[in-house]
Specification:
The chain is of the alpha+beta class. The chain has three helices and four strands. The protein has a four-stranded antiparallel sheet with strand order 2-3-1-4. It starts with a strand and ends with a helix.
Length: 91
C-alpha cells in the first residue's frame, strides 16, 4: 500500500483556505509533496499529493477530519489514498 494520498479542495474562494488546510496537515505530520492551486472567477481549486507515512491517526479519521474542516470553512475537501484515486480516474 502506498503512503501517498490525494487531497482536493474545491469551493468559493475565501481568505485562509490554504492556511487552515496546511495547518491541519502540519499538526498531523502530513508532508505536502506536490501542490497545484488555482482560482477561477472566484472559485478556489487545490490538489495536493501528500505523504501520510508519519500520520498516527487511522487514514479514515484524517479523511473525516478534512471533510469536517471543509464544512467549517465552506469548501469541499476530499482525501483519498493514491492507489484508490488512480483506480477511480483511470481511462
Amino acid at each position: 500500500m502506498t503512503n501517498k494520498a490525494i487531497i482536493t479542495v474545491v469551493g468559493k474562494d475565501t481568505v485562509g483556505i490554504i492556511a487552515k488546510v496546511c495547518t491541519y496537515l502540519a499538526d498531523n505530520n502530513i508532508n505536502i509533496l506536490d501542490i497545484s492551486q488555482t482560482i477561477v472567477q472566484g472559485y478556489f481549486n487545490m490538489m495536493m499529493i501528500v505523504d501520510v507515512a508519519s500520520v498516527t491517526k487511522p487514514f479514515e479519521a484524517v479523511a473525516g477530519d478534512l471533510n469536517g474542516l471543509g464544512t467549517d470553512i465552506g469548501v469541499q475537501i476530499k482525501c483519498q489514498r493514491e492507489d484508490i484515486f488512480d483506480k477511480m480516474h483511470r481511462i
